[in-house]
Design a protein that fits this description.
Elements lengths: L8 H28 L4 H11 L8 H8 L3 H13 L12 H10 L1 H4 L4 E9 L7 H4 L7 E4 L5 E6 L6 H7 L1 H15 L2 H20 L1
Parallel strand pairs: 2-3
Antiparallel strand pairs: 1-2, 1-3
Helix pairs in contact: 2-4, 3-4, 8-9, 9-10
Length: about 210
C-alpha cells in the first residue's frame, strides 16, 4: 500500500495557518458580538442627548447625571453605538446620517410602541411640542407615566425609564424624544412633521 501521508509540508503549514487565522477572526467577531449584543433603547436616548444643544460637549459623567443612567452604562452604550456606526471611533461625535437612517427606517421595528391604559403622565407624541404645534390631537392624548404629569391620556412606554425626568430638565431633549415617539408610532402626516423637526436638530448639530 502506498504511503498516503502528506507529502508537501509547506502546503500543510499553509492550511494550518489559514485555520488559525480563521479561528482568531471568529473569536474576534464573537467578542464584538458579546460587547455589542444589539442596540438598546437607552442608546437612542443617549444619542438624542448628544445632538441636543445642551449635550453637544457633554462627556460620560455629565451624560450620566443628566439622564439618570450610570456612567458604566453610558460607556457600554457608546461602545455599542460606535460598533453600530452611530458615533465615530472616539465616541465623541454622532454620525448624523446613520442616526437619521435608523430613526426613520429602523426604530419603529426595533423598539415598537404598545399603547396602554389611561393614566396621568407627561405629554408625548401628538400631545406634545413640536408635533402638537403642527397638528391637532383632537380628543386623543398620549403620555409617559409620571406621577407629576399634567395630562391624563393613553400611556406610551418611554424608551427608558428615566426619560420623563431627563426630558423635564432639557426642553430640546424632550422635543427630540417626542419626535422619536412619533417616528415609532405615527401616521404618515405625523411622521412627515417629525422628520422635518428632526432634520432641524441634525442640521444645527452638524453646523455648530
Amino acid at each position: 500500500m502506498k504511503d498516503v501521508s502528506i507529502r508537501n509540508p509547506q502546503k500543510h503549514l499553509h492550511i494550518n495557518r489559514f485555520h488559525n487565522k480563521f479561528a482568531i477572526r471568529e473569536s474576534q467577531i464573537s467578542t464584538i458580538m458579546r460587547k455589542n449584543s444589539g442596540m438598546r433603547p437607552q442608546d437612542i436616548v443617549i444619542l438624542l442627548k448628544k445632538i441636543s444643544p445642551a449635550g453637544y460637549d457633554m462627556k460620560g459623567k455629565d451624560l450620566a447625571q443628566s439622564l439618570n443612567i450610570s456612567p458604566s452604562e453610558i460607556s457600554e452604550s457608546l461602545e455599542r453605538s460606535m460598533l453600530s456606526g452611530l458615533v465615530n471611533s472616539d465616541k465623541k461625535k454622532v454620525n448624523t446620517l446613520a442616526l437619521r437612517e435608523f430613526l426613520l427606517f429602523g426604530i419603529r421595528y426595533c423598539f415598537p410602541i404598545q399603547v396602554g391604559n389611561i393614566l396621568r403622565g407627561m405629554p408625548t407624541y401628538i400631545s406634545a411640542s413640536p408635533i402638537s404645534d403642527a397638528i391637532s390631537p383632537g380628543n386623543d392624548a398620549f403620555v409617559w407615566k409620571d406621577k407629576n404629569g399634567s395630562l391624563r391620556g393613553q400611556s406610551i412606554e418611554p424608551l427608558y425609564y428615566s426619560v420623563p425626568e431627563a426630558a423635564a430638565r432639557d426642553k430640546d431633549l424632550y422635543r427630540l424624544l417626542v419626535i422619536v415617539d412619533t417616528l415609532r408610532i405615527g401616521r404618515t402626516r405625523e411622521r412627515e412633521i417629525a422628520i422635518n423637526e428632526l432634520d432641524k436638530y441634525l442640521k444645527e448639530y452638524v453646523s455648530r
